[in-house]
Each structure stands twice: as C-alpha cells, then as structure tokens.
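Dear support,

I submitted the protein below through the web form. The confirmation email said the job was done, but the results page showed an empty box. After a refresh the structure appeared. I'm attaching both so you can tell me whether what I see now is the final result or a partial one.
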Amino acid sequence: MSTLDLVQLSKRFSGSVNAVQSVDMNVHDGEFMCILGPSGCGKSTLLRMIAGFEMPTSGDITIDGDSVAALPANRRPTAMVFQKYTLWPHMKVFDNIAFGLQLRHLSKADIARKVQEALELVSLAGYEDRYPAQLSGGQQQRVALARALVLEPKILLLDEPFSSLDAILRVRLREELRRIQRRLQITAIFVTHDQEEALTLADRIAVMNAGRIEQIDAPAQIYASPRTLFVADFIGAMNLLSGTVTNGRLAVGGLHLDVPMGAPGGAVTVAIRPEDLAVLPAAHPEAWSAVIEQISDLGHYRRAILEVGAGSSAFTMKMYLPKSFNPAEGSTLQVYPRRYLVYGGAGAAPFECVRPLPSEALTV
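What the results page shows now:
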C-alpha cells in the first residue's frame, strides 16, 4: 500500500491549452479515489501524468514521499488499466498477463505462479490458453486488470476501464473491482465521467472542471453538500433556481423561502434535490402550488416534472414521488421544499437551509 501526493500539478499543451491547472491532491494508503468530471476537464491527463505517460509542465508527484515526476513510466511503481483493453491479439491470455513479468526477467516458475494467482483473482482461471478474440469484452477487461495487478504496483491507475461495456456488465465489473481492491488493500485511482460509478466505488471523489479540482470529499458529502454550483449541477439530479435575497427573505419566481442569518444578499442560486421536495395534502403557507406536467415511473419511485408558480414568473422543477402516490398529469400539488442550499458570491460556501417537515407530508 502507498500514498500519493500531487503538489501544484499543471499541464499546458502547445498554445494556451491548460489541461490541468495547479492541482493539489493526496490519496491515502489503500484508498480508492475516483476522479470525476465531464469530457475534456483534464481528468485523463491528470492520470497520465501520475502514470508517466505525460510529463507535467510544473508541480510535483510523490509516491510514499519520493518524487517520481521526472521518472519515465516504466520506472514508476504504478500500473495502468486503459479504457480500451490494449491486449496483444496474437498472444494468449497467459502471455498477455506474463509479458511485464518477462521484461523483469523473473523465472518461468515465478511467472507461472503469479499469472495463475492473477487469473484466479479476476475469476478467469482456466482461460490462460485462449486468445483475446475468444473472450467477451468483460473478460478482456478482466485480463487487462490482471495484467496490471500481476506487476504488484504500489498504485493502480484505471482510466474509464468500463465505459465501452454495457450497463449490466459495468455494474458487475465495478463490484468485482471493488472486491479485489479491498482484498489487496491496494491504493487505486479511478477516472470516470459516470457519477453513479464514482458514488458506488469511491472512498473519496475528486470532482474536476476545466482543469481544476472543485471538491474532494466522501461520496455522501459530495452529494449532500456540493461546495460549488458546478458540483451541485454535475452530481445527481438537482433543481437550480435563480433567486434574490432581500431583508432575510428569499424570492424565487414570485414565491418565498426563509434563509439563515448571514446569508448573502442580492442575486443567489437555490439548489434543491428532487427528493428534498415533499407533498402536502392541503394548502400550507410555506408550500408552493405546482402543476404536474409529466410523470415517469422509475421502479421504486416516480419522477414528476412540475410547473411551479404562475405567469411569467413560473419555473420548472423535478421531484420524486413515493410509489404509493400516483397523481394524474395536469393535477395540482402543494410542494414543500424541506432542504435547500443557497449559493451567493463566487467561491463562497453555500448556506444550508433545513425546514421542519409537517407530519402529514409525503416523501420518497
């Protein structure tokens, strides 16, 4: 097990393309860290710098306190699993996995033992004499994982390894990956643009945007308390509403909410999770009247698209309804925001507002 530290790490490509900008990040011993962000945010470039496939423009990379920033990839104690399997099609599974060990000049007996252990770890014992073309996509990615693990790296790096697989297989393989990582207690860094994947796998998540890390936190903290509007909008479903705070009252499209003492005045953005909206059975002074535009059945709950308010100040929101509650499209609901975040000036932490939930309220 090992620790990784990134210190003011930056990468500038030709011209003025700042792919990664002044990233500070530490990954703990045995931790599973996910780097999450949209396409083009710099997450794969960041991973490739850790691996040694890209050299940083500035900053440092240390593993267990030793700088590796100037070392080539083959001298770093890391191993990479790529999005594409990158298996040699003319080699059998055994030889694909054994290749790195052969470069280290291990004995045939040690290579055979280590390859067999790696195959058993990824549940592919008995597949060593097959060629990649004889394997499914999921099996090929397991071979790629075994090829990385057999090198016994201090840090395992994974660059969107499941993105080309179907949804059911992705779920199965990420569960298998987490099992293997916990069993080996290996430090792992996993790059993905899939928020569900990150929330499921990670001990902590680093959310990237435009080359910078906007927040590093545990999944539950990232979801419940996004530090910036980008994180709030990127992680999970969120209603983002424009509002104005005047004299301790928050106006949103002609409707009102309370804000805590010290909340910023002027223009703000209100963030409300769909599950933080409750339904009241009758009119309530703190509820909003909303018309259901659309309902979708999502299995254990329903998702409703609402038009809230009236006239030019009306706005649209998403909310989740319990399965037991089945109103018709076009009907009116009394919607009660029970928790919301208020974002003021740039860089300022949001204010959390939690209101008492009436006993008769319906929630997911």
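Response: this is the final, complete result; the empty box was a page-load delay. The chain is about 25% helix and 35% strand.
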